[in-house]
């Protein structure tokens, strides 16, 4: 499939941001500058920037233009239903500790098709509400072949282009199907500490597994949200 010009421009900007050419809070080239650099219409250049805005990579700043976001944005586990843009439901987050290689819990290992005793890369983050208070605690587990092919997953620094695009660029694999399993239980001590809730609090747990074009698991995320913040709405034809 041919890459459209605005997608090519957007991908070029992602790579430049990922390489550190434009750091958090710094202004990216304007639509006019991009149009001149790429010999395209200003509308095409603006469309390219809008792709980055929708992905949460840049934000509009009055009087300045578009700047690289200073706070990473992510969606809650399970918030990836068809038709939802990343910015829709996106939340700022804080990375918790450094990524580590660990043996995943049984249900995560099963979802990832990981053999007992095998290790996976664990990345943890806490998604935040607009006032900075915790919303959910998310553990993302990547199978060994993905983590080894995409070494930046093992770093604490945010991936400006987003993990999905980064993994696709490194491996050629991308998500085409998501499976979400929602359960309810009591919060663990570790989760309670990061979420700022009392022990014994009821939480909703969404186990989200993304599968690639060949049906192989790419990542499994377990998102834990206190009951006061969890709400799921489904709209469907009758």
What does this structure look like?
The protein is of the alpha+beta class. Helices cover 27% and strands 31% of the residues. It has helices at 5-18, 31-38, 42-54, 106-112, 144-149, 163-171, 189-195; strands spanning 58-61, 65-68, 73-74, 91-102, 120-128, 134-142, 175-186, 202-212, 217-226. The chain has a 7-stranded antiparallel beta sheet with strand order 3-4-5-6-9-8-7. The protein has a two-stranded antiparallel sheet with strand order 1-2. Helix 1 (5-18) packs across helix 3 and helix 2 packs across helix 3 (42-54). The radius of gyration is 19 Å and the shape is globular. Mean pLDDT is 87; it is low at 82-89.
Q: Which key features would you list for this structure?
A:
globular; single chain; 27% helix; 238 residues; alpha+beta
Brief summary:
The chain is of the alpha+beta class and 238 residues long. The protein has seven helices and nine strands, in the order αααββββαββααβαββ. Helix content is 27%, strand content 31%.
| Secondary-structure content class | alpha+beta
Shape: globular
Task: Point out poorly predicted stretches.
Answer: 82-89
Task: Bin the strand percentage.
Answer: 25-35%
Question: In whole angstroms, how far apart are the ends?
Answer: 36 Å
Spatial extent as radius of gyration: 19 Å
Order of helices and strands: HHHEEEEHEEHHEHEE
Mean pLDDT: 87
Count of runs of 4 or more consecutive helical residues:
7
Number of DSSP strand runs: 9
Main sheet: strand order: 3-4-5-6-9-8-7
